[in-house]
Amino acid sequence: MSQQDAQKKANDNKQPKAIALLSGGLDSNLAVRMILEQGIDVEAVAIKTPFCDFDCGKGCGHRVKEVADDLGIKLKTVYFGEEYLRMLKKPKHGYGSGMNPCIDCREMMYKAAKEHMEKTDADFIITGEVLFQRPMSQNNRALHIIEDETGLEGKVLRPLSAKHLPPTDAEKEGLIKRESMGDIKGRSRKEQLALAKRFGIQEPPNAAGGCLLTDPAFSKRVKDAMEHTDDIPTINDIELLKVGRHFRLTSSEKLVVGRNQEENEIIKALVQETDIVLEARDYTGPTCILRGKNHSSFTISKAAGIALRYSDAPKDISSKVKLMVAGNEQELEVRPSGVSETDALRI
Ligand code: SF4
After folding, report:
1. Do 185 and 308 share a structural domain?
2. Whose CA is nearest to atom 2 of ligand 1?
3. Per-residue pLDDT tens over the stretch 125-181
4. Residue 215 included in any domain
């Protein structure tokens, strides 16, 4: 037998394999079950971004390992860090209603799945996408763009909506029975819940919504950070965006004020060498970070005033604020900042 024939025979006998983009939510879980049901081998790729770290409390990604175990499939986690922030600064396809660059983000996810598909000699990719469920990335045009730009045309099967979409290679080649695929579209979850029941999924998770970048208040902070950073914010800057009240003091300086003990601890853990840390000296109050460059005594006083505003210090007289500057403790006496003055600086 020639080498080519031997290869063909090996390929013919190979168990078909799919790579699933698994989020831990219900839809991708169902998509995997529909494909496993067809006798296809499935491995999963889960994506973490600085804004969707399996720990947002929305209950999707948090369950991803649990879901993969439950499905009995291998899981590979891929973390996007700086390259994600670079994309976020100027996404080719723009933003959704917040700072969510869904099309570019999905492209990065598809590319990670594609890489794993090639590495593991899998045949196609599956996702839990449902046509018209999300406005920016789950419409025919967006799905087409994403496939086209990632070189995955015909290679991505969305089992839940497959009957509304052009047949994929897996269907054309007979690896998958198209008639067993779903015809779900839109935002109602009725059909997914019925499917979950059929698969015996106990307590299916609620719809998770998008990542943090779809949150309007958080998006404002991200936009501000992007606009005031020459290159891209650091991962530490992004972590800082997730806690406290934020104030834009000058184009190169911002202040972050903890809202409770837990946030104060997180803020302390995120302090960088060039930050100035502020706390009311004689009263209970927040831990604050003044971050940026070219701090003038004017901005430091302003930051100290805001720190006092959110402390138990009396609001009509001056009090002392403790500053930690490059490892040296200093003190400053200022009056608490006024309400309207403080609010005007809030991001
Ligand atoms: S909602 Fe967030 S994680 Fe989901 S595709 Fe959009 S940007 Fe990416």
Report:
1. no
2. 211
3. 999 999 998 877 788 999 999 999 999 999 999 999 999 999 999 999 999 999 999
4. no
